[in-house]
Amino acid sequence: MPRPEAMPGSRISLHFSLSLTDGTPAFDTEDEPLSCTLGDGTLLPGLELALYGLRPGEEQTLTLTPEHAWGERQQELIKEIPHSDFPAKTDLEPGQILAFSLPDGEETMGTVLAVEDDKVLVDFNHPLSGQEVVFYAKMLEVDNSGIAED
After folding, report:
1. Nearest-angstrom CA–CA distance, 142 and 43
2. Rounded Cα–Cα distance for residues 35 and 51 (Å)
3. Percent of the chain at pLDDT above 90?
4. Mean confidence (pLDDT) of the chain
5. Residue pLDDT, tens place only, 19-59
6. Could you tell me which residues come within 8 angstroms of residue 41 by beta carbon, excluding any fewer than 6 positions away?
7. Averaged over 79-90, what is the pLDDT?
8. How many Å is the Cα radius of gyration of the chain?
9. C-alpha distances in angstroms, 27 versus 1, 17, 57, 83, 143?
10. Which helix (H) or strand (E) segment is 24 a member of?
11. Other C-beta atoms within 10 Å of 150: how many?
């Protein structure tokens, strides 16, 4: 029986890593593989496309452009926030990543770019936005039993 290949709706398990094109590591699943269903939103569409057709034991390495990864950096996602909006004893430093609550109750992350007396400049772009990323994946398991046959 041939090994199944990954397709939309496949339940998969894989190890993967992301790095910048200069080799700087950004993320990896070295300790624990990721399991998900292709198409459920766990992975970005560009990452999913790189997995289609892979069978257990196969590997894939691709360089993804920003539009296939986290998009281009958006200047409008850099915000000035009054220093008074932060708790009084918060020690803010450039490079610090903080969680912010959105009006709908969701949380988002922001990176402190600059701290001034009366305001804090925060970047809400994803840290990998605007970057080409190298995506390496090793498929461990593919389960297509839940996909309806045509």
Report:
1. 16
2. 13
3. 72
4. 92
5. 999 999 999 998 899 999 999 999 988 899 999 999 999 99
6. none
7. 88
8. 19
9. 35, 5, 21, 31, 25
10. none
11. 3
Fill in the amino acid letter for 58: E
Neighbouring C-beta atoms of residue 137, cutoff 10 Å: 24
Which single residue is written with the structure tokens 């001034």? 116
The pLDDT of residue 150 is above 60: no
Residue 78 has pLDDT above 90, yes or no: yes
Look up residue 8 and give its two tokens. 């939309």
- Domains of the chain, start order: 11-71+129-143 (3.10.50.40), 75-123 (2.40.10.330)
Hey, what amino acid is at 25?
Answer: P
Q: Identify the helix (H) or strand (E) that includes residue 58.
A: none
Tokens of residue 87, six digits: 């708790």
